[in-house]
Design goal:
alpha+beta, 4 helices, four-stranded antiparallel beta sheet, two-stranded parallel ribbon
Amino acid sequence: SVQRGYDVTEYLLNCFGGAGGQHACLVADALGMEAVLIHPFSGLLSAYGIGLSSIFSSRQQALLKPLAEVSRPAIDELIATLRKAVIDELAAQGIAEDAVASKPVLQIRYDGTDTALPVNFERGSIARAKADFEAAHKAQFGFVYDGKPMIVESVGVEG
């Protein structure tokens, strides 16, 4: 808020969570705020929220291969390994395998750069992954490199 130009001293600090009430006054004092709102059920609401959340597991592993058909066997093998780890973890929590929807995600970057962007790989198409990466790169940075190789930095599976 301060970085966006808001004067937080004119606002009320709303705290939440099990330990919110323990820290709210110190945070408000550090920010120069004069009032704090501590909801009587703030800790309970956090517990309630986590109780409503979905069970989720994810695994990710480095790969460092070109985004090309020649890398397809390594990508597919790693996706299968990570998917099994996700399904095993969820099975240990009582979730049946047929109830698990998994999604493979590739972290892709241009060769020689250090910023990887996540690309959904559910369709399993290298050409589609390239197009999706270029669209994401253009949206974030405003340009794409013509002819620059793309690297799969890591592979992840969410389930």
